[in-house]
Design brief:
22% of the residues lie in helices and 22% in strands. It is built from 4 helices and 8 strands. It has helices at 31-41, 133-140, 152-165, 185-195; strands at 6-11, 45-50, 71-74, 77-80, 106-110, 144-150, 169-178, 199-200. The longest helix has 14 residues, at 152-165. Bound molecules: pyrazine-2-carboxylic acid and zinc ion.
Length: 201
């Protein structure tokens, strides 16, 4: 049963994470019809949107000599480098054209600070800078967050783990997610979600 204190959080269903996009997640577009079904069933829906300024520090192109999917050491720890993606205002940053998002009550944009990446919908990758989402959920009286979207092993997983750490119930609908799977990250992050008490559905 879905109650008034439940919210659906749709993570980064944007063109750049779908086939043909700059950081395409394999079969990423397959989640769209499933997520549209979930959006219909939930009374409350929030979206996240990866939203980087041009020249963002998570882009390999900002690090001479580095290639996408290599890592660099940032002041806040190790950071994977990505192809340029989800640049503010570009078509790649828009939601998938078939995503039925109009019902969403909030769009949380993340990754807009040039010097720091943000996988989680709650905290940037320094694990300290909040996005404001936890406060919003508390003020609205939501206690349980259900996650779907892209990518399972990055933004979905980090968001679900932070939801638990912020005291919310969290579940992930795996069928309605697709992963990047970099260096075994699908396996690692699903185990980490289980360990943190995220329900995998
Ligand atoms: C994501 C890598 C970089 C994601 C965002 O949405 O999972 N992954 N930016
Ligand atoms: Zn990003």
């Amino acid at each position: 049963m879905i109650s008034e204190t439940d919210v659906l959080l749709v993570v980064d269903v944007q063109n750049d994470f779908c086939p043909g996009g700059a950081l395409a997640v394999e079969r990423g577009d397959e989640v769209v019809p499933l997520i549209n079904g979930l959006i219909k069933r939930f009374d409350h829906v929030i979206l996240t949107q990866d939203w980087h300024p041009a020249g963002h520090s998570s882009f390999a192109s900002s690090h001479p000599g580095k290639l996408p999917f290599e890592t660099v050491e940032m002041p806040y720890g190790e950071q994977t480098l990505w192809p340029d993606h989800c640049v503010q205002g570009t078509p790649g940053a828009e939601f998938h054209p078939q995503l039925e998002w109009t019902k969403a009550e909030l769009v949380i944009r993340k990754g807009f600070r040039k010097a720091i990446d943000s996988y989680s919908a709650f905290f940037e990758n320094d694990h300290q800078t909040p996005t404001g989402l936890a406060g919003y959920l508390r003020e609205r009286g939501f206690t349980k967050v259900t996650f779907a979207g892209l990518a399972t092993d990055f933004c979905v997983a980090y968001s679900a783990i932070d939801a638990r750490r912020q005291g919310f119930e969290a579940s992930v609908i795996l069928q309605a997610c697709r992963g990047i799977d970099l260096a075994g990250s699908m396996e690692t992050m699903t185990q980490r979600m289980r360990d943190e008490g995220v329900a995998l559905i």
